[in-house]
Design the sequence.
DNA sequence: TCAAAAGTGTTCTTATTACACCCATGG
DNA sequence: CCATGGGTGTAATAAGAACACTTTTGA
């Protein structure tokens, strides 16, 4: 193997085997939102080749001198305007031919956001940005459909291990909205009484003295999350320790 | 941004932004074993700079024309002689300065193996290969200690969601050995009766008409795994669906 | 006969499931 | 007055946790 010195930002020089150094690294962001009924996903329409005109996950190559996690946040911001979202790594996809132009390995990140609070706008190589119901997403650029599916599996796992909703619902919501969110994520119906019993027993909800208005049925009581307790729950997960 | 054509194996040509293409990608393997008492980890002593003489996870750069999963299997084989192990991806580590010679992003894989069945021998840039009790591992090359910790967390999660043991124990084992394995992974003691009740209720064990020999106490009955049922359990995990 | 680990059941508590009717509102 | 979704409790079952003594062997 042949060694060579190459110029490298942030470090003086490197002596690494040249043939390894013709690859790129990207991140792709799977941003889930909820509109009160359906689970949605944020996609961009690509304005560049390859896959120009295709819908895709917001993603791009990262810089040599940025951490991949920071890169994910930057790429998401540059393409969609979304910022200050909590991104969590899911999985790295590295089959040889996943990118038609060269060897590009990508790491998927996911996040949950409130659609209403997150105005998005297309920038950079994104020609459009839009929310799509996950049930209607079928064709995506690259291997992005596979990535999306992996992230949905991850989301399903997460929702079983800790409460979800703070990131996806408006500040005040009804228990039925929360239940619809769980049903949208887990893709099966739940019993109303059992769901309420369980979610209330977690002690992460605060009952408000406010009700829905203008609905053609008995108005539902509004709740909010007890932010402190919610966060503790998320951090610790359900404790399985003895 | 400046575009250029670079030579690329397996594809004709690429037009990708040059500054992105000075990085490398590696894999690191976290191989867990069990000796009947302690959880152990397979390490190599590096024979090359950087971190020459340090103990490290078996890891190396991957080739441009190999899938990362295949790369993990190859690297593990080349360094330690271990092959045909089931590798599962855990997490990708991509802070800028994690490798002193340049930008190297790495993906960690883990596996579980029977130490006795897996003769290992140092090759390539591994000067030595050896099993270490996880409790005694403290200094490792690069950020490998962080990677090891992440994989241990993953292993703890896994053991709560599906049975573990087939990959780590000899073909015939006692229930106490199995319990010691669980305790070694989860790092807390378990009640003998409750453990037995639970593991037997999974129906993945076959009671043998054989007993321990030559022990200075009442000899324990031997069990083996019902391979079919075990595999089904692993694949499906614990089903939480309604 | 002693030390060491094997083996074994019951009780209590908690979590999970299944299930049906009345209530408040807008149209 | 009707359609719509809101709101409520109980009983049965299953899972999890706590807990102590007898058995078998080799030394």
Sequence:
């Amino acid at each position: 193997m042949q060694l060579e010195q190459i110029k490298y930002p942030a470090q003086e020089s490197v002596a690494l085997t040249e043939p390894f150094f013709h690859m790129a690294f990207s991140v792709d962001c799977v941003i889930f939102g909820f509109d009160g009924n359906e689970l949605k996903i944020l996609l961009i329409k690509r304005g560049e080749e390859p896959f120009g005109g295709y819908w895709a996950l917001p993603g791009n190559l990262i810089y040599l001198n940025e951490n991949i996690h920071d890169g994910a946040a930057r790429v998401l911001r540059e393409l969609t305007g979304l910022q200050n979202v909590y991104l969590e790594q899911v999985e790295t996809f590295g089959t040889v031919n996943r990118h038609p132009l060269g060897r590009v390995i990508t790491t998927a990140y996911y996040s949950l956001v409130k659609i209403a609070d997150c105005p998005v706008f297309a920038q950079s190589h994104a020609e459009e940005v839009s929310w799509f119901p996950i049930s209607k997403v079928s064709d995506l650029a690259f291997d992005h459909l596979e990535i999306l599916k992996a992230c949905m599996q991850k989301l399903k796992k997460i929702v079983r291990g800790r409460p979800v909703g703070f990131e996806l619902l408006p500040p005040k919501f009804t228990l039925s909205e929360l239940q619809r969110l769980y049903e949208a994520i887990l893709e099966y119906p739940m019993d109303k009484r059992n769901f309420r019993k369980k979610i209330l027993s977690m002690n992460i909800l605060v009952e408000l003295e406010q009700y829905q208005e203008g609905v053609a049925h008995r108005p539902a009581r509004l709740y909010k999350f007890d932010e402190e307790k919610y966060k503790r729950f998320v951090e610790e997960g359900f404790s399985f320790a003895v």
